[in-house]
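Dear all,

This email documents one entry for the complex benchmark we are building for the journal club exercise. For each entry we list the sequence lines for every component of the assembly. Then comes the predicted three-dimensional structure of the complex as a token string, followed by one or two observations. Please use this as the template for your own entries, and keep the labels exactly as they appear.
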Amino acid sequence: MADKDVLIDIFTRADLIMQSDIKFRKMIGAGQLQIVYYPVRGQEVVSAAMMAAVNQEDYLVTIYRGLHDQLAKGIPSKDLWAEFAGKMAGTCKGKGGPMHITHPETGVMVTTGIVGSGIPIANGLGLASQLEKDGKVTVCCFGDGASNIGAFHEGLNMAQIWKLPVIFLCQNNHYGEHTHMRDTTGSETIKQRGDGLGLRSVRVNGNDASEMYAAAKEAVEYARAGNGPTLIEAMTFRFHGHLLGDTSHYIPEEEMEQALKDDPMPILRQQLLDMQISETDIAAIEAKNAATIEEAAQFALDAPYPPGDEYRIDVLDVEIAA
Amino acid sequence: MSEKPAEIMFAQACNMAMNKAMADDDKVILLGEDIADEQGGGVFKVTAGLSAQYGTDRVRSTPISEQAIVGAAVGSALVGYRPVAEIMLMNFITVAMDQIVNHAAKLRFMSGGQTSVPLTIRTTTGAGTGLGGQHSDMLEAWLAHVPGLKVVAASNPADAYGLLYSSIMDDNPVIFIENTPTYFTKGPAPAPDHVVPLGKASIPREGTDVSLITYGRGVGASHAVAEKLASEGISCEVVDLRTIAPFDEETVLKSVAKTKAAVVVHEAVKNFGTGAEISSRIHEELFSELKAPVGRVGSGYAPVPFSPAIEKAWMFSEDDIEREIRKILG
Amino acid sequence: MATEIRIPKLGFSMEVGTLAEWLVPDGSDVTEGQEIYALENDKSTQEVESPATGKLKILIDTTGEEYPVGELIGTIE
């Protein structure tokens, strides 16, 4: 079991993610935000534990289902919510949107909407750190589906031959869009693919905060010591479909029931209580997160949209003529 | 540098430009298949000697993994490096298009200007040497269509030197297209501090009757035709775009406003080629002043054929340029 | 302050949704998370949850009609 302070840290991040996801789904459901949204409920602990094991200066490359990773890495809620709402005050001035969040101050360098494409880019960040000898690591998140695209194999191979300080975090939620992994993936596990490519590869219960944190910490230390990359296959589940509005009709009821029974959030909360952290202290963390989210959501709704001709800026390093 | 040869080859000019960029800025790194000296210094030896001079940390031979090569270049560029990725042949760019189009070109914009991707992709191509359908395509129009990318092609060694250096030092992603069949043709050597700015066309030959707007290998062919027609009293102006995208509209329009006739010449397949865009811009701005509609010369609507007999018939030629000029000048 | 209930965007291509039926009558006290109306789109029918606790005020009570995403159909006060 990870120590008390670490678990509190992980819980604080994970609860912010959970409450944010609930709030997003509520606001989208009520039509207050009209955006395509990829729910993260169920995968909170994987990100929270991973990001608790790295520093703010370390890099993150993630994917369209990335809210949990971005919050866990520390992007301020207001900036993030405003970007999700397409507002000028957002992290990317409303020009990226939920699928393309960037926030270098917290190390979030790329969020890609293309499955697997973050992997080769993470290598470039790792290469820069290796050349700079700055001691940074890069965390690269993707799902189980990404292991079936070429970039995964090219990227992991290159990371291994160059011993790049990159942690490939495969959040295995069993489904690539609507199809179960068993129908799309020739190997039984993603770890086997890492093994085949010669990488140090581990498979853990990503929903267990202590187990996930231990694997993350070990991979980070391994990378910082110059030993090279690790593939972590973190087993998890998503509770609310590929994107909001998808009813998960393709997930058998028993499977969903079991996954909900294994919901990592109440389990982690109970672990805190078991470690003699008081209900009052936990409730205070939750209340603080709730207040942060309320403020961020209202800010996102109230903030102005960017002016239309903002599209001519940031295409190249000079403004494009009208 | 008083000992420098009066003439250098195109490939040598590219090598010198990278050498100078690496000497000037230690953030310049090279990535590509077989580019280090141990592997031969590149299949066309364009990077020969650079790993010996700067080490294999900065001049890295890679696996045959174009997505991984461009991705590593994108990632390192995001945090301050100026990577030069060599994609051995332009057709292999197709397997890295996701990294180029969805990432290199868009990350500055999608991040709201928080990050930028100052990378250069060097690649070579060109028909006429019997390499067939997958080793000779000119794909510049694909890339020119993508907002956020610059596309550059040099027509002579001195320009190659000055343009490649500018490409490497540019803060935007640049595709630098070299031409395999002319790698070993010689031209006047540039001064070591010779820099050609991106986005500026040149007018290597002035004329009054028709503007030949072209780039890369089209420039040499256009010169030859201009020379031939001069003996008949037809005066051709040659405009070398040098940067294909974004192209120097000002210079092009100024030239055509003077000659009131234009032919756009390129090696790439004519259909949906860059000639269509350039011709359209001329029509939009100068329609009423033109003596005739803008002409276009490009290669045929077919994959690059293997057999020399068919390849020659397919490929754009000096005869095509001459015919097109005569057509529009009536 | 009243919480608005608008036709939500649930999916890539959703531009319009059909208000199939209200599951609770106008003026009811509803609790956050309670299913309050059924929404049909081209793919499926879903029960939509109340975004707040309070009194439901139905603004559009003709059911079976199609409305654009973003249309205000009710509030919770």
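Observations: The mean pLDDT of chain C is 89. The CA atoms of residues 1 and 31 of chain C lie 16 Å apart.
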